[in-house]
């Protein structure tokens, strides 16, 4: 029995999207955990308000959410499901923003950590 799923590589592309998104979100939360003493409150606010509400508003405000860039990659990589019809940024722009965001947040987090640990 054969299943139609857009392409044979849709599963691998979904895993790649999850890994890329995990790197970007991890860098963000590493920086936040170094900056504030109770990062759980920021995490809850970010998860329920920013990603849940702000990322879903149509218009340019969604460009401020990591979710938009991860979904933009998925819209170009995956041809089935709701993500295929997402009004997205170009894959090059999305990859550039996610890479720059991940590296930038990690570097700033490392610098802040170094200043707090070894003044």
Describe this structure in words.
The protein is an all-alpha fold and 119 residues long. The protein has one domain. It is built from four helices and no strands. Helix 1 packs across helix 2 (39-51), helix 1 (10-35) packs parallel to helix 4 (91-117) and helix 3 (66-77) runs antiparallel to helix 4. The longest helix is centred in the C-terminal third of the chain and has 27 residues, at 91-117. It is globular, with a radius of gyration of 17 Å. 16% of the residues are buried.
Quick summary of this structure?
This protein is mostly helical. It has helices at residues 10-35, 39-51, 66-77, 91-117.
The total number of structural domains is 1
Main β-sheet: number of strands, strand sense, barrel status? none
Q: Catalogue the unreliable spans.
A: none
Please state the CA-atom Rg, rounded to the nearest Å: 17 Å
Total of DSSP H or I helical runs spanning 4+ residues: 4
| CA distance, first residue to last residue | 64 Å
The mean pLDDT is 85
Q: Name the helicity range.
A: 55-70%
What proportion of the residues form beta strands (DSSP E)? under 5%
Q: Give the total of beta strands.
A: 0
User: What's the overall geometry?
Assistant: globular
Task: State the secondary-structure class.
Answer: mainly alpha
Order of helices and strands: HHHH
């Amino acid at each position: 029995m054969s299943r139609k799923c857009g392409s044979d590589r849709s599963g691998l592309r979904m895993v790649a999207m999850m890994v890329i998104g995990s790197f970007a979100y991890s860098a963000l939360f590493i920086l936040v955990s170094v900056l504030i003493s109770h990062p759980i409150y920021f995490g809850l606010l970010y998860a329920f308000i920013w990603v849940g509400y702000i990322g879903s508003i149509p218009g340019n405000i969604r460009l401020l959410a990591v979710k938009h860039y991860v979904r933009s990659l998925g819209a170009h990589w995956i041809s089935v499901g709701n993500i295929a019809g997402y009004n997205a940024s170009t894959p090059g722009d999305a990859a550039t923003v996610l890479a720059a965001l991940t590296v930038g947040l990690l570097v700033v987090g490392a610098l802040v950590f170094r200043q707090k640990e070894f003044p």
